[in-house]
Design brief:
This protein has about 350 residues and is an alpha/beta fold. The protein has 11 helices and 16 strands.
């Protein structure tokens, strides 16, 4: 049986197309998931425009933010049944015996391969998923929202797990994309005063960010950054997709403050890191997520404390992927969501 899928078929820019691919066959420890919704990630766009910095196993079906119903179960799978509503983590392939995996940090396993670049993802109707990756979706939570558990987990890891944000802290988030906006939400849940910095072309996205009640900034953020005591902000979350924004972060962070770097930027930066030393600043990278983070995020979403609805700019059929990608790439919306035809 064949199914239509959004396939990144080569490294060259624009090498994404709707193609027929075989329906997956599952192994004993897998389930077959019928996709309800899949979010479009900035990394999907980066593979489309070929300005990514990670290896891709071409050709590959895109899509790693997804949820749906279980329609088939492998022989060794327990505690799941057909019809269950689930979302899936992204670490499709890991070495369970690696030092990081055995500590629970399989997201940092050097052999890890994720959906949408290492193995086929979910921009299609059926996707094969190892059962170890599944999380139950509470009934009141729609799949349009639940499919964004993954970027919410990225933000939770960056802000809650890998940062030292305390109630009353002042936090500058650089980049009003999906991850930046969700990092701002997480910082606010931690009790921080938050501002989000963007570019003039981010006007539409910053308007969406304002729905969460955050201060939005364009250009030089100095007035807001230094208004309290002239020293800068307690934490900068750099969620932009370029390396150069690290300089803005170094200028804005206060002495003994922290920079959380979660945005990817393949190009080198051309400035000194001496301010990092002089200010005694912590520079913290943050990548991906693991099982307990997903459980926390799903609980927050189900309770209503974490509302992703403002960032969803629309739902498109899988066959309309190009429009969905363009809407995000142009900055007209923050997040596109796809639904199988």
């Amino acid at each position: 049986m064949k199914q239509l899928a959004v396939v990144n078929y080569a490294e060259e820019k624009g090498s994404v197309a709707l193609r027929e691919v075989p329906k997956p066959e599952i192994g004993d420890e897998d389930v077959l998931l019928e996709v309800a919704n899949v979010g479009v990630c900035g990394s999907d766009l980066h593979q489309w425009t070929s300005d990514h910095s990670w290896p891709v196993n071409y050709p590959v079906v895109l899509g790693h933010e997804f949820g749906g119903h279980i329609v088939e179960i492998g022989k060794a799978v327990e505690k799941w049944k057909e019809g269950d509503r689930v979302v899936s983590e992204t670490a499709a392939v890991i070495n369970p015996q690696s030092p990081m995996s055995r500590q629970g940090f399989y997201n940092l396993d050097t052999e890890r391969k994720g959906f949408g670049y290492g193995v086929n993802g979910a921009m299609t109707r059926y996707v094969k998923v190892p059962a170890r990756l599944l999380h139950r979706v509470p009934e009141p939570l729609s799949f349009e929202q639940a499919c964004l558990t993954e970027p919410c987990a990225v933000a939770y890891n960056a802000v809650v797990m890998n940062s030292r944000i305390k109630p009353g802290d002042r936090v500058l988030v650089i980049g009003p994309g999906t991850i930046g906006t969700l990092c701002a939400v997480m910082a606010s849940l931690c009790g921080a005063e938050v501002a989000v910095l963007g570019l003039p072309q981010d006007k539409a996205r910053l308007k969406i960010v304002e729905q969460y009640g955050f201060q939005t900034l364009v250009g030089d953020p100095s007035e807001w950054v230094f208004k309290a005591d002239g020293l800068g902000v307690d934490c900068v979350v750099d969620a932009a997709g370029v390396s150069e924004t690290l300089k803005i972060a170094l200028d804005a962070v206060r002495p003994k403050g922290q920079i959380a770097k979660v945005g990817w930027g393949p190009k080198p930066f051309h400035f000194s890191l001496d301010p990092l030393v002089q200010k005694n600043v912590t520079l913290q990278g943050s990548f991906s997520h693991n099982w307990p983070i997903w459980e926390k995020v799903i609980g927050l979403m189900a309770s209503g404390k974490l509302d992703v609805r403002p960032i969803i700019g629309g739902v498109w059929k899988t066959s309309e992927w190009h429009e969905a990608f363009e809407k995000m790439h142009s900055g007209e919306i923050i997040k596109s969501v796809l639904k199988p035809d």
